[in-house]
DNA sequence: TCTAAATTTGACACAAATTGACAAATCTTT
DNA sequence: AAAGATTTGTCAATTTGTGTCAAATTTAGA
């Protein structure tokens, strides 16, 4: 339930960048980015976009993970999570 | 984006019950259930279950709508909403 | 190993969102 | 017009989200 954190940690490590550096770029405390990568906290939408640029990946890729994490977090482990998700998808389709 | 509110309003009206009565049953203010039916506020999970019993429908039916509303609310009108939903679904499947 | 840098943890602060009550305004029915 | 039903607006209490800071722990290099 923390796809984005894992992803940006992988990106950071693959480029040999320090938490300190990402934190500076995002203008937040190092402790915070540490928590974010481990899924203890979440990025804001704007921060996700900044990070995507920083690591040279598309906004879409990271935002999709970010949204997915948010969704899974709100339906948590509700027994009807899948039904709710399907209903949401059906409704969303009609809105597009 | 307020499937549940519409549903419970329809249920209430089909049975000719007053907001006042539902509110009394749920032990909340009448104004609140009014707002809930119009999507201005949300029920808690426990209240959804109480309402389901009150109107003699299944928990599953109302909780599905409740979850769907929550999901659609959190992904709001993000341009990548559908991608996020699909990713969430994929991940959720692996967790079951 | 020793130590310095990097990361993690826990406590706290502040802001924003949520949940509810209450009073007043509006809508409906008779 | 009067009574009841519903809606609206505002305020308080609580919860949740976003961030900092200091201290503890882990990791790496000399």
Largest sheet of chain A: none
Helical content band of chain A: over 70%
Distance N terminus to C terminus of chain A?
27 Å
Please compute the radius of gyration of chain A using only Cα atoms.
15 Å
Determine the number of helices of chain A (DSSP H or I, runs of at least 4 residues): 6
Assembly annotation: homodimer
- Total number of β-strand segments of chain A? 0
Query: Which stretches of chain A of 5+ consecutive residues score pLDDT under 50?
Result: none
Main interface pair?
A-B, 30 and 30 residues
Quote the beta fraction of chain A. Answer: under 5%
Give the helices and strands of chain A as they follow along the chain: HHHHHH
**Mean of residue pLDDT values of chain A:** 95
Briefly note the structural class of the backbone of chain A.
mainly alpha
Give the overall shape of chain A: elongated
């Amino acid at each position: 339930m923390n796809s984005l954190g894992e992803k940006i940690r992988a990106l950071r490590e693959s480029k040999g960048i320090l938490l300190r550096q990402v934190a500076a770029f995002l203008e937040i405390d190092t402790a915070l980015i540490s928590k974010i990568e481990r899924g203890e906290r979440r990025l804001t939408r704007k921060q996700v976009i900044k990070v995507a640029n920083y690591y040279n990946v598309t906004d879409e890729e990271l935002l999709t993970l970010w949204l997915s994490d948010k969704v899974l977090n709100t339906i948590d482990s509700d027994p009807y999570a899948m039904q709710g998700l399907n209903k949401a998808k059906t409704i969303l389709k009609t809105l597009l």
